[in-house]
Design the sequence.
């Protein structure tokens, strides 16, 4: 398969900003990285465990019964997570996303949601608080999460067909229970987005059935290009179905028109159904990299800060949190230095390499299940 190379400027939303010289770290306030990108979005992994084994994230051959997960003592407590979130908010973070593994496996997650929902941005506004889940436990927890202050939820669902679903997540879990979780969230008043990872040859035949099912329901369905996250999912370019093809397939049955991004740094490109039946989104990290306005940092469940989904190492904040003389100022300054030194743009650089070739010198990427999607 001969893939065409696209010049950097033609890649999706490439980094058109000029590199920024290192600035003095502000004690508080918005931070910008070396490419001028602000830090506005923190993804917080609250567990490295999951009850699914999605082949593109936690292949069961690797994450088997002998896999060593983090001991409970290594996990940040809810109070430590909340303290860090408060300090990130002081540095301009407006959006918090709880992830995992599967975040609903973390006991009493509602109490963390309650603590985070009480935080305020420097202008006094509440933070945007959302969660990504496989919805296996959502039917039971939706009401409590909403009451605790959760504002929105994103559900990962890769098929409506049980057999195809099983091929994607390698567990025997009925789609009906995921749909029940989605219904429970909506009944509780939580707006829902659906994320479908598309793997050519495995579930791409499900694109139209999923679109038909969620059209007109108010739930926004997003299609995610299969990515080479981590180092264990055996990623191959030929299994990537470009988002342009997803849009073409759906558009052939339901005419679509492009929409503006709803916020800077939004990962999805939005498309509206011409007939008013709602919208879909495509997240195209492989064929249309969006590193140019990537404003996301990720906190692992044990307190390491990662600056890119495809990072290979993080910055350990836990010692700062647990030091006897731990101070907010020291943590604020550390966050500032870390972000201001950031220049990650993995997806843009991947696009410059020949397909299915990796950078021989590149260190091993961390697993997505460890830092959250
Ligand atoms: S590849 Fe890294 S820098 Fe680029 S958009 Fe994804 S997380 Fe951001």
Sequence:
């Amino acid at each position: 398969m001969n893939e065409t190379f696209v010049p950097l400027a033609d890649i999706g939303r490439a980094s058109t900003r000029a590199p920024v010289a290192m600035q003095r770290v502000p004690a508080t306030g918005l931070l910008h990285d070396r490419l001028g990108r602000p830090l506005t979005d923190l993804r917080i992994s609250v567990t490295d465990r999951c009850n699914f084994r999605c082949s593109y994230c936690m292949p069961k051959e690797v994450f088997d019964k002998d896999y060593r997960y983090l001991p409970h003592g290594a996990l940040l407590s809810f109070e430590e997570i909340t303290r860090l979130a408060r300090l990130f908010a002081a540095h301009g973070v407006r959006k918090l996303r709880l992830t995992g593994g599967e975040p609903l496996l973390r006991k009493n997650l509602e109490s963390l949601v309650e603590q985070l929902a009480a935080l305020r941005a420097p202008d006094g506004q509440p933070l945007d608080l959302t969660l990504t889940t496989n919805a296996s436990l959502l039917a039971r927890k939706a009401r409590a999460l909403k009451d605790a202050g959760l504002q929105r939820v994103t559900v990962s669902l890769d098929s409506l067909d049980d057999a195809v679903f099983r091929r994607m997540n390698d567990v025997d879990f009925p789609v009906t229970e995921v749909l029940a979780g989605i219904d429970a969230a909506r009944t509780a008043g939580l707006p829902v987005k659906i994320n479908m990872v598309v793997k050519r040859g495995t579930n791409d035949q499900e694109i139209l059935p999923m679109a038909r099912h969620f059209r007109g329901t108010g739930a926004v369905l997003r299609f995610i290009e299969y990515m080479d996250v981590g180092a264990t999912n055996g990623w191959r370019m030929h299994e990537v179905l470009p988002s342009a093809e997803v849009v073409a397939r759906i558009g052939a049955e339901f005419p679509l028109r492009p929409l503006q991004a709803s916020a800077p740094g939004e990962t999805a490109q939005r498309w509206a159904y011409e007939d008013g039946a709602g919208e879909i989104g495509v997240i195209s990290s492989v064929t249309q990299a969006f590193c140019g306005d990537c404003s996301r940092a990720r906190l692992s469940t044990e307190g390491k800060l990662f600056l890119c989904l495809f990072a290979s190492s993080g910055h350990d904040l836990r010692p700062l949190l647990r030091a006897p003389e731990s101070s907010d100022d020291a943590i604020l300054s550390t966050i500032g230095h870390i972000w201001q030194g950031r220049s990650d743009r993995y997806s843009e650089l991947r696009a410059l390499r020949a397909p299915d070739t990796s950078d021989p010198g590149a260190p091993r990427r961390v697993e997505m299940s460890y830092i959250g999607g």
The domain at 4-371 is CATH 3.20.20.70 (TIM Barrel).
